[in-house]
Amino acid sequence: MRLAGALAIADGRTLVSADPATVSWLTGHVPEIEWGPSPFSAPPIVVLGPDGTVRLVVSEDETEGLHENVEAVTFPGFALEDVDRRGRAIELALSLLDGRVAGALASLYGELARIELDDVGDDLQRARAVKDPNEIAAIRCAIEIADVGQAAARAGLAAGTTELGLWTSVRAAMETAARGRLPVLSDFVTGRRTSDIGGPPGTRTVEAEDFLLVDLVPRVGLYWGDSCATVALGEPPTEVREAHSRVLEALGAAKAATKAGARAGDIDAAARVLVDYPHHTGHGIGLTTHEQPRIVPSSDTVLEPGMVIALEPGCYGDSWGVRVEQVVVVTEDDCDVLSSHDLALQSTT
Amino acid sequence: MRLAGALAIADGRTLVSADPATVSWLTGHVPEIEWGPSPFSAPPIVVLGPDGTVRLVVSEDETEGLHENVEAVTFPGFALEDVDRRGRAIELALSLLDGRVAGALASLYGELARIELDDVGDDLQRARAVKDPNEIAAIRCAIEIADVGQAAARAGLAAGTTELGLWTSVRAAMETAARGRLPVLSDFVTGRRTSDIGGPPGTRTVEAEDFLLVDLVPRVGLYWGDSCATVALGEPPTEVREAHSRVLEALGAAKAATKAGARAGDIDAAARVLVDYPHHTGHGIGLTTHEQPRIVPSSDTVLEPGMVIALEPGCYGDSWGVRVEQVVVVTEDDCDVLSSHDLALQSTT
């Protein structure tokens, strides 16, 4: 019925839309909205051929749950290297258009896009990476709230609770401290789920010897905080304890390498030589959850004083995963750590 | 420092950006992200003149908290009548451009906007307004979750709790029932704050004779639910009880007028003749929180079977406000009510 309705509107033309509601209506794509646009994606675009073929130009990470008749035409998702996902999405969508085209580019500013302009987007990203004192103070506030959440997660972890039950208490603690509702991006997984690196809290019940991987990214006002810890109940297996020690060492090495003039790629290497993980060593944080400078292999980006960076080495086995994360401000000679949450695998109390 | 950085990049040119991070960076504008784009707004656009003048093209409802040096150039915010806010924003932004222009239109698909296409956006909106049985089932699921939240709010309302404390328990109840995290748009105000029509939960402490206005809009999977009730602790003042009775009558009158073939404007009039309020009588709901058909004065839109509509008359005094809301599906002869939460002002238990 939805397809028939759209075909009637298309009336022999190819139909294209980047309006999120129309995309979801025709394809079943569920946009994640609670924490704003993902830095590792681009808005999907649906293309409906006159013959009823439905194609969705979408990140390779977001093809789950699409209607059966939908063909996913994908651009890269999460990656260590920089990818122009938006550019690739447009290229793919254009390649699917044929004949007369009807559309609703509700999210696209047609007229504004037609003006001649010099693209300075990269310059602006670089400028935004260096924070002024007001911005650092704002990020500090967000990190204090993340610290509150980490303490609540550690204190509340107990056999018999569910991930979701613990999560709601953690969010409540952060919102109470911030005196209002907060957008919060998070990984909140226990037991074997930690081997997935991350994921939302689910219905799993915490068991006696479990551990929790908790990554909290709250926005307070305009700025985001970020923090991660792994917390064990009882005595974790030896390989988990050893991995956690290596990850802490890697975090220490990354911090030791972080100062004005350092190459981002060298910081990445300093941590990664101790333990490897299928993600970045760190990333800038501020007005978005993940921005310049990216601490990834081979990056030639040179750090400047005032850059604010989340460092988050991890280690993941077949049935477990551990990660720790702190946020630092780059200074002339080293870096100041803004995070103050407990990083210990086992609480001493 | 931020302004100086941007001026250096602009280098004598006018700078324009619709990238949300750049907009926030230069103006202090805080985008609401937890529940997706507002149907009563459009993305703001910042224009920085070569002389350092910062202008923000923004909804008149979103000018709070801007940096002191920022001039807001506004387009209409919430309104009963239909407004092309996006078109107005583009027009305003174009009028501010002068000379050479540099920019980062990160949220704008330039290439895609250049293709020739027939705009069928309105047709798609009309088509999306009529839901098929799968969509109605999905909306029903979201409304069941809203019902759970309403019950939790009613049960938890007690003197001494804060709005925020009660809110976190309501959200937890909904997420537990849905077995996962949920985007939730809400109004959650008590006491005198109800006269504001809505607003987020704050730090206010509930008092013995208070009442709560609770409007819950959770998204479950792809589809949104919507519900509102007003709940009193103790004995509310006579004028509040009388207003609540009139609002219930208005809801009944709106439902009685809702069936295939009815004019949206007539449904609005049926409710509004009993009690007046500075907002719509209702709105379509589905893939977005507010869509066609809009139940507003003088609308000639004719209802069709399968349209899903939230009806929400209210009444607001100087120090109090009451509102009730149910969601219905339009049928040939009348409408089916999907909501089953308690609408009573005073709980009988």
Question: Care to describe what's here?
Answer:
2 copies of one chain form a homodimer. With 349 residues, chain A is α+β, with helices and mostly antiparallel strands. Helices cover 32% and strands 22% of the residues of chain A. A 5-stranded mixed β-sheet of chain A has the order 4-3-2-1-5, sandwiched between helices. A 5-stranded antiparallel β-sheet of chain A has the order 12-11-13-16-17. At the A-B interface, α1, β1, α2, α3 and β5 of A face α1, β1, α2, α3 and β5 of B.
* DSSP helical segment count of chain A: 9
Distance between the termini of chain A: 60 Å
How big a fraction of the residues of chain A is strand?
15-25%
- Oligomeric state: homodimer
Shape label of chain A: globular
Round the Cα radius of gyration of chain A to an integer and report it. Answer: 22 Å
Structural class of the secondary structure composition of chain A?
Answer: alpha+beta
Question: Which whole number gives the mean pLDDT of chain A?
Answer: 91
Main pleated-sheet profile of chain A: 5 strands, mixed
Query: Can you count the beta strands of chain A?
Result: 17
Task: Name the chain pair whose interface involves the most residues.
Answer: A-B, 87 and 86 residues
Which stretches of chain A are low in confidence, meaning pLDDT under 50 for 5 or more residues running? none
- Order of helix and strand elements from N to C terminus of chain A: HEHEEEHEHEHHHEEEEHHEEEEEEE
Share of residues in helices of chain A: 25-40%
Strand order of the largest sheet of chain A: 4-3-2-1-5
